[in-house]
Amino acid sequence: MTPVVEVRTLRKVYSIEGGEDVVALRGVDLTIDPGEFVAVMGPSGSGKSTFMHIVGLLDRPTSGAYYFAGHEVSALGADALADLRSRALGFVFQAYNLLPRTTAIENVELPMIYAGVPAATRHRAAMDALDAVGLAKYAQHQPNQLSGGQQQRVAIARSIVNQPQLILADEPTGALDTVSSEDVMTLFRRLNAERGMTVMLVTHEPDVAAHARRLVTFRDGSIVSDEAVREKVLA
Amino acid sequence: MISFTQTLRLALSALIRNRSRSLLTMLGVVIGVAAVIVTVALGTGAKTSVANQINGLGSNLIVVMPGSVQTSGARTGNGGASTLTVADGLAIAKLQGVGSVSPSVNVRTQIVANGQNWQTAATGVAPTFTAVRSWDVASGRFFTQSETDDAAKVVVLGQTVVSALFPDGSSPVGRTVLIKGVPFTVIGTMIAKGQSGGGQDQDDTALIPYTSALERLTGGTTIGSLLVSAVDADHIASVQTQITGLLEQRHGIVGAKSDDFQVRNLQDIAAAASSTASILALLLAAVAGVSLVVGGIGIMNIMLVSVTERTREIGLRVALGARGAAILRQFLIEAVLLSTGGGAIGVVLGVAGAAAIVVFAHWPATVPVTAVLLALAFSAAVGVFFGYWPARKAAALDPIRALRFE
Q1: Cα A211 to the chain's mean position, in Å?
Q2: Which of A22, A43, B197, B207 lies most in the core, judged by the most C-beta atoms within 10 Å?
Q3: Per-residue model confidence (pLDDT) at position A165
Q4: In percent, how much of chain B has pLDDT > 90?
């Protein structure tokens, strides 16, 4: 089975003008197989966000290899990376990042527009995705008519609509209350368990990380632990 | 890759999301284009009416006027000399390319009839006058060659004189009027001709045979001017040269002695008048064009603000797989939509404004289609020009920073 993500001795160094170089990642090795649900934890400055950006093809490593679904991608050009993001990756952000004054279904359709999916297919796929997150009847609602938890679920629908090979969630519960957080995490678990979606989640909350099946901890630019999470019963 | 129509839709929905801001942004271009359309319409209208007035003076008309003469060191102005004679006119009539010739003898005088009186220009002309000036009678008839030969006391009145002397609307034909105390029989009236290019009322005139004017009113032999029509526009220049040569010869002007007459053609006057109108129109349009550019700068400002404000949105689009080129195109299309939308609204307002000026101020105004197309093309160009920089800025944003932007 080809891993979705395979990184070898990944280094990322930020050059700061007139100052010392900052090493964000110092030789990271990690493999994520299809169907995994990985939580990445670590304090601020541990390199977990940098790692997430490189895995999400928004940034390039300074050195090391990154195979995405078996293909070396660390040397690809900006347009090739953009095309890969639109086809193979789904993003969920802490701040939802839905377009304001735009209906839920239109928000969900957005990644398909950039992927060049025809309009007829788009609508059906967007409805399916909204249905998968339990918000089909809110399709015509605008973000300001939805609660935070609902908005985040629309964002999750948006992230899965192109059937990506990997979903990247960056502090997806950071702006939510406990109940909504539980809802959102349950949704991720369901998508992982029922649809076999590969999820990588970055968080600093142990409660949230506990929903994953594998926990990777970063400190000072290196992985300090990589362990299986004790199975939790689906709520 | 995202298609053009899709990008257009994205741009359109982004603009609709910020309706009021989009409309306000357009306002600068709206005003600029409307101003351009109105000024061009007025300029074109003015040019057309100047051209009409000058054509109304007579087709291919050449005017020979006496020049300046020097008497004991005092020079009169042009037309002050009394050097043109009827014989000059007869000689000119024989030149090649000449259609008709009419002398013109102006006598400023009081004209009395019907218990009314009016000061006007009694003008002595030949029967050829109607042809030279392409001006016909409205009622009655013009005088004949034999009436001219007899210095008959007949007059054809201009419409201003008609309404001044016969305010009751009765027909003046067959009535008798006193011109400088001499009784003349009215045999006809001229069609109303309106103002000349110089703003003179051409209808304020009483036309009599030039022989009658010379014998009965001025008592002289010199005439005020000679009106000559060339057979067609191509002959104007050659007729002018021939007239100059002929008159120099007849008046004995040789060497450095300056001509005691001047030959002017209306095409020159028309060209001068219409070029003045064009320059004026151009100046106005330039001022209006400046406001259009200011409108474009307004669009650039708002687009720059919008790029900053929508940083997260741009970051999101990039994360979702938008290429830099797609972001650039979307923002460029937004700017062009704003500017051409503003241009279209401006055209509508400008045409309406021009129409309103025609209706309420009675100024001539015509909106040339080319001006509309140019205004639209220019506003689109304004959008591209002023939208490019903000669009470049948007496309160059680092998605990671853009996503974190607060």
Answers
A1: 15
A2: B207
A3: 95
A4: 22
Contacting A residues, span 16-75, partner chain B, CB-CB under 8 Å: 53, 56, 58-59
Number of residues that this document lists for chain A: 235
Residues of chain A with pLDDT under 70: 231-235
- A37-41 and A214-219 strand pairing: parallel
Burial pattern B243-277, b for ≥16 Cβ within 10 A else e, equals bbebbeebbebeeeeebbbbbebbbebbeebbeeb
Asked if B117 and B236 count as a contact pair (C-beta separation under 8 A), the reply is no
Distance from A101 to chain B by nearest Cα, in Å? 6
Which token pair is A145?
A: 């008519």
**How far out from the chain centre does Cα B177 lie?**
38
* Chain B residues inside the 8 Å CB shell of A102: 13, 17
* Cα–Cα dist A77/A54, whole Å: 14
CATH (residue range A5-96+164-228): 3.40.50.300
How much is the pLDDT for A235? Answer: 46
Q: Indicate the length of chain B as a whole number.
A: 406
B343/chain A closest Cα distance in angstroms: 27
Question: Percentage of residues in chain B with pLDDT exceeding 70?
Answer: 92
Which residues of chain B have a CB within 8 Å of the CB of A56? 319
**Scanning the structure block, which residue is given the tokens 């939308």?**
B341
The set of residues, in sequence order, having a beta carbon less than 8 Å from that of B210 and lying 6+ positions away, is B86, B102, B103, B104, B105, B124, B125, B126, B148, B223
CA B62 to centroid of chain Cα atoms: 21
Q: Please tell me whether the interface predicted TM-score (ipTM) of this complex is above 0.90.
A: yes
- List pLDDT tens digits, range B65-123: 887 655 555 555 555 556 788 888 888 888 888 888 898 888 888 888 888 888 888 89
Partner-chain contact A85 B319, CB within 8 Å:
yes
CA triple B181-B187-B189, angle to 5 deg: 100
Tokens of A32: 């994520």
Q: Which of A4, A73, A71 is nearest to A36 (CA)?
A: A4
Where exactly are the structural domains of chain A? 5-96+164-228
Which chain B residues touch A78 with a CB distance below 8 Å? 323-324
| Helix (H/G/I), strand (E/B), else coil: A28 | strand
Instruction: Flag whether residue A123 sits within 8 Å of chain B, measured between CB atoms.
Output: no
Give domain limits for chain B. 4-53+272-404, 84-259
Q: What is the CA radius of gyration of chain A?
A: 18
Cα of B352 to nearest chain A Cα, Å: 35
